[in-house]
TrEMBL record, chain A:
The organism of origin for this protein: Aequorivita antarctica
InterPro entries xref list: Beta-lactam/transpept, Beta-lactam/transpept-like, PBP_dimer, PBP_dimer_sf, PCN-bd_Tpept, Penicillin-binding_protein_2
Protein's gene: mrdA
Keyword terms of this UniProt record: Carboxypeptidase, Cell inner membrane, Cell membrane, Cell shape, Cell wall biogenesis/degradation, Hydrolase, Membrane, Peptidoglycan synthesis, Protease, Transmembrane, Transmembrane helix
GO BP terms, alphabetized: cell wall organization; peptidoglycan biosynthetic process; proteolysis; regulation of cell shape
Pfam families noted in UniProt: PBP_dimer (PF03717), Transpeptidase (PF00905)
UniProt name for this protein: Penicillin-binding protein 2
Compartments, record wording: Cell membrane; Membrane
Annotated ranges, domain Penicillin-binding protein transpeptidase: 247-578
PANTHER family associated with the record: PEPTIDOGLYCAN D,D-TRANSPEPTIDASE, PEPTIDOGLYCAN D,D-TRANSPEPTIDASE MRDA
Origin: domain of life: Bacteria
From TrEMBL, chain B:
Stated name of the protein: Cell wall polymerase
GO biological processes: cell division; cell wall organization; peptidoglycan biosynthetic process; regulation of cell shape
Residues annotated as transmembrane: 12-31, 51-68, 80-99, 143-159, 166-188, 194-220, 232-250, 323-344, 356-383, 389-408
Gene it is expressed from: rodA
Gene Ontology molecular function: glycosyltransferase activity; lipid-linked peptidoglycan transporter activity
GO cellular component: cell division site; plasma membrane
Organism domain of life: Bacteria
Subcellular location: Membrane
Leader peptide range in chain numbering: none
InterPro entries xref list: Cell_cycle_FtsW-rel_CS, FtsW/RodA, RodA/MrdB
Keywords: Cell membrane, Cell shape, Cell wall biogenesis/degradation, Glycosyltransferase, Membrane, Peptidoglycan synthesis, Transferase, Transmembrane, Transmembrane helix
Upper classification of the organism: Bacteria, Pseudomonadati, Bacteroidota, Flavobacteriia, Flavobacteriales
Amino acid sequence: MRKIVLIALVLISGLLFTARLFYLQVYDASSDSLAQNSAIKVMYDYPQRGYMFDRNNKLLVSNQPSYDVMVIPKDVKPLDTLEFCGLLKITKEEFKEILHKARVYSPRLPSVVLPQLNKADYASLSEKMHKYEGFYIQRRSLREYQVDHSANVMGYIAEVNNAIIEKNSYYQMGELIGTAGVEKEYEDVLRGIKGVKYIQKDRFNRDIGPYKEGVFDTLPERGNDIQLTIDATLQKYGQELMVHKRGGIVAIEPSTGEILALITAPSYDPSLLVGRERSKNFTKLWYDTLAKPLYDRVLMGEYPPGSPFKTLIALIGLHENVVTTEDAFSCYGGYRYGNRILGCHHHPSPLSMIGGIANSCNAYFCNVYKRVIDKYPTPQEGIDAWRNDLMSFGLGDFLGYDLPSGKKGNIPTSKYYNKIHKFPEHKWSSLATISNAIGQGEVLLTPMQMANFTAAIANRGYYYTPHIIKNIIGPDTIPKKFTEKHYTAVEEKDFYPVVEGMHQVYQRGTAASIQIPGIEMCGKTGTAENFTKIGGKRVQLTDHSIFVAFAPMDNPKIAIAVFVENGYWGSRWAGRIAGLMVEKYLKGEITRTDMEKYVLEGSLEAEYAKPYSGQPFSINR
Amino acid sequence: MAASKSYVRFDWLMIFIFIALVAMGWVNIYSASLSDSAKGFFDFDQIYGKQMIWIGLSVIIIIFVLAIESKFYERFASVIYIVSLISLVGLFVLGKTIAGSTSWYDFGGVSIQPSEFVKATTALALAKYVSDIQTNMKDLKNQLGALIIIALPAVLIILQPDPGSALIYAAFVFPLYREGLHGVYLLLGLFAVMLFVSTLAFGAVWVAVGVVLLTGILFYRNRRKRPSIIKYILIAVGCIAFAFSVSYIFNNVFKQHHRDRFNIVLGKEVDARGIGYNTNQSEIAISNGGWLGKGWTQGTQTKGNFVPEQHTDYIFSTVGEEWGFLGSMIVVLLFVALITRIIYRAEKQKNQFGRVYGYSVAAILFLHFFVNIGMVTGIFPTVGIPLPFFSYGGSALWGFTILLFIFVKLDGANYHYA
């Protein structure tokens, strides 16, 4: 016993230390990563963000250097405050306040004194900077917009927030990330890869050279440039046409699905969200809750499609074999069912399909719609079959385009009607859903979806997923899903009478007033009733003005949907705007200057102000 | 052991491990003290350069120690011991104060810390006393005699004050136990440490309350055996007196930095940037090592000087960071091997003097090893004592060298005489 106590203790301590060392060095290796090492400072080298070009290689957005005045409070030596404030163009009080905040944040870490100096301010300041110890100028890269339109397409970049940092370890506090539009959707392509430098520090937090002579350091990799499908000229022109109106324009190239124009109104100059005034401007845009300039109406707005939807009813009628092009229906000032009437405007009667489309006869489409639904044993099955046909046009669901915002719209299901009519206690029939026939009622589409079904009609039976990316320059690719054809449920042959009907709309029907010499257009006007709530009361507002079109009739180059909120009737605003856009795109110049003048000078601001005036107002005048 | 034809036969295993530890120590001191102004390995202005000088001088010391006739150590043990005690007393007059402790003599820029040598001289004196034919460790009078030999230098060192170094004198309980001291003293020592720690942790008043309750319960449980109530009261009073004197010494004799060090260990301070900083940084550095370490002079915590006193008491954290689990284990194994080898050879000694001395060497090295690595890895209180042969410092290196090589000499002579 006496001989072994000490040896035993020595061996036990040996085991104890083995266990402790194993725990510290192998098992609990949590502090192993370089980034978490308190002795290593990680410095990032930010690459240039990729540029954006339009379809004709016109530069839309590039980068500009920006200069922030930074301070490390503990390094600040007594200085001539008055002179320095003069250089920074701030008051002494502001300067003291900024310095106090910086010191409270951290005496050792850099804080921003003055963000985003312009080049002129930088030039005058940089010469004298050495006089002020503890202050220095940090170079950053900001966006520089070459155009004042397309803010909704390009989107913007903003500082990452904590939620993003937690999800994605690439980002650090204070870094920028694409937050909307193409900037967000193609963030990974545009941002490039930041370079990393590991700096060895001592315990006083002083740099003592690169860690391991820089073997782990990496160089930044510039982001890829991208070419968008939009046409800057068309985009700019569309935005001008939409001044003082609310709504939007979507133009698609039917043969590819490329988005030629994507305009929401009102919009804003993208340069507003860059530089020292950014947060002030952003706040202003964000809190404009009536005009909502940050809200992309063409992607996010769900509207009753109105009469353009009738073209789809006709197509489905043919597809479901419940109507032939020769079948004619009488219109008695509207469609009568039970003791109710769904009114119509004055036009010849009876009408078959082409006439029905050209004159936008409500009674005609109610009849066709009823036949479609009643083809099936129950209205439930009828609605679901109708819905399936519509969904093959990309309606009722996200389209799958490459922009980060969007809405599904609404193509009601039988379940939906069962619920609102309390089935099975109460039965419902096709007539309960008859408003769907004319694009009112429960049906809601985004302008983007309307442009897409128009493109499908232009193609006589298929569409490509609309997309904004034309080319990622460098790898020279775009995602494969944008080169696949999506066929509609309706066969090609059934499209010809509908296309002819749409041509008649332009030739002699509801859009005859917008005819443009030399362009064979097919279109469909729409006038959609709409309501809003004011003080909890449902109030009807002036109808929306809607127009969808494609041109030329054979070999279509452009399919377009125009939506003008409270624009009264289809050809009044939307029709004219669509006509001008098509002419601008196809001919590059405007011959209908009368029409252009009307649109450019016209304003609907008075109409938009009405519901908020507090006065009684009348609509559709 | 390889057969040797030399006149005396040294234990080459001990010498080999000694060389290995000193060499590895230097390599790590080099890394821990490397600075931009260094001019190569032989820059004697640098800490690692000076350590090289200390190592060179220790070779001369080894030659002297081995050259001296082994009987000399036994015969002159008392004289050497008394001279060394005088050197400790002399500190109160001539000593130089560094970091609050008056533990050094200053010889023209070279500081010598006598307490590092007194371990060896005390071991010699104790061995001489215990091996005396008239000494019996079961006799209370002789127990007291041994206690005085150990306590004299320990008390002088506490008064410097250097409680860390004084703590090491507890190691002598092991050779005494080996020579027949009752096992109860080992347990008593342990109990005293427990009382000591709980007094600091909870305060003397609460310890007193606990002692009264505990003796009460024990007395009640043993009441059938008709225990002597006076014995119980004496023991309780003794414990309480001990607790209060510890409390008094802690609050009135100890310096603030001693108090702080104990407070950290007892978890009274959790401030990572405050006084717990050393241990915290040391643990971070060791964790950084992983399996194989960052490589020599590549440790980030070491390079950034995050661990204070890294070349002295915290040198093992450099091993942990730069040589990883593998390197740390080699060091731990070398120490375990050296100490067990010394114990093994001590048991083989033909005379009691050699055995007691050998046990003393083993126990002192063990306590240093245990307290130091325990501290650096964060499982033991922060007590500022060096890692033998490894830590920077001339006095410590020479002290340990003399301690070990006197035993190598005694052991070798025994081979010869056997």
